[in-house]
Amino acid sequence: MYAIELTPEHPVAQLTDFAVSAESEGFDAVFASHHYNNRDQFMALSSMAQATDEVLLGPGIANPYETHPVTLASRVATLSESSDGRALFGVGPGDKSTIRNLGFDHDDALRRVLETLKVAQRLWDGERVDHDGTFRADDAGLNYEVGEVPVYVGAQGPHMTKMAAKHADGVLYNGSHPKDLAWARDQVDSMLDDRVAEGEFDLAAYASVSVAEDADTARAAARPPVAFVAAGSPPPVLGRHGIDRDVAGDIGDAISAGEFEEAFGLVTDDMIEAFCIAGTPEDVAERTEALREHADSVVFASPLGPDIEDAISLLGAATDRSPA
Length: 324
What we know:
Blueprint: E1 2-6, H1 12-24, E2 29-32, H2 41-51, E3 56-59, H3 69-82, E4 89-91, H4 96-99, H5 109-124, E5 129-132, E6 136-140, E7 151-155, H6 158-167, E8 170-173, H7 178-189, E9 202-211, H8 215-221, H9 223-232, H10 235-240, H11 245-256, H12 260-265, H13 269-275, E10 277-279, H14 281-291, E11 297-304, H15 308-318
Parallel strand pairs: 1-2, 1-11, 2-3, 4-7, 7-8, 8-9, 9-10, 9-11
Antiparallel strand pairs: 5-6
Helix pairs in contact: 1-2, 2-3, 3-5, 6-7, 9-11, 14-15
């Protein structure tokens, strides 16, 4: 699978046009990211569903803290219905730097995500659910038929990655560097004998990418998403790439305070190399091939490039996704 992530920092109508372009370029799926300070991801996905015919659609990711997990299950089920069964459910704990503005932290993140996906699957199977764990549900159920929806867990650390390999259909692994995907593959492979979910497992590199005909322009556009990735990366990931933990912490503090320009200015060249595929179409094609040595799928994530419409076309050509 090759997919595109769209960030609802743009108007819904524009995001929908981007999704149509992604489908015409031959991409298999479109994910919409979520931060409370952007437009609503499910409203954007609903609009995309009405304008497209074949591309898979889903949140990438939805977090089960600020929205009750049963409500999330219903929203994804509604998307499945409105898209004629093309929905995917990307679920994860969310970005630390933004959800802490709402009074949430990541305590029990693994349990929260696991309980969310398990409860969702039971609801989609038509069950009524009682649950008392990281959240409560008392005799909860959906009043309409759903069926199966593939579940992808957003992950970066070892425990969430291994949990996904055991229980989910796939993982949206937050990594852009072959070194990180090689590590993720080891985590996934170590759990496959314990897998309880049915079907093949999809290790998807959820890779920040910035592509343009001019490499310097592409790298400049990479700074904002790299800031968010660096701020949210656990210490082992920062250490793997020799990234200063204190600087990453300063970036996270600046993001939480709404000082985005300060945060983006703290991004270093080493961070861009570690946390983004940035450069010309040829650069992106080469790096993508390196990722595919370890990953089953690749999701090209924000910013895509300084011009998103052009970037979708360039990425389609770079990965030979354009329909014949």
